[in-house]
Here is the input.
Amino acid sequence: NAGVTQTPKFQVLKTGQSMTLQCAQDMNHNSMYWYRQDPGMGLRLIYYSASEGTTDKGEVPNGYNVSRLNKREFSLRLESAAPSQTSVYFCASVWSGQLNEKLFFGSGTQLSVL
Amino acid sequence: TQLLEQSPQFLSIQEGENLTVYCNSSSVFSSLQWYRQEPGEGPVLLVTVVTGGEVKKLKRLTFQFGDARKDSSLHITAAQPGDTGLYLCAGANNDMRFGAGTRLTVKP
Here is the structure.
């Protein structure tokens, strides 16, 4: 049982290049999230998907697009990377109970944009 | 500005000391969670508190949710070097928002 798998673990891009961060979960969860983590800023929500076929903007969606390809996969795309997008990106899969939720995180993608 | 403000940002203490870290917001949450994150890894859930005034204990860790469900605290008794890490609080409504975290270092 792999849980949440993110690829790649590390990536270096030049300004203006594009790339897609992949995330897959094997826990049959409906909801998935994408966060970025920067020093002193904590985790900021980029986009989330409450169910297959739906996506919604979070706190910092500008410069990103997402695709909920199926229930397992939720990808994050940078169309034209900028140095401000240098960050560590985390994908999370969400177990939802009657009263609360639990997030299961991947191990992160460290992205540098030069 | 962060939706959830955590304090202190950094804390360095000796093994055996007690400590409290705080998570405050002007927003009401349906639930609040505490996570711990170690370098190179994603955060891992420690506890979820749901009811205003709720207190939960997890070994040497005590979590409290404020009566108004806007704030929370984490108290660690007799801290150990293994408690070192980044402690994050997260509030749930339609989605899950995180504070910036408290980076705790426990020196042997």
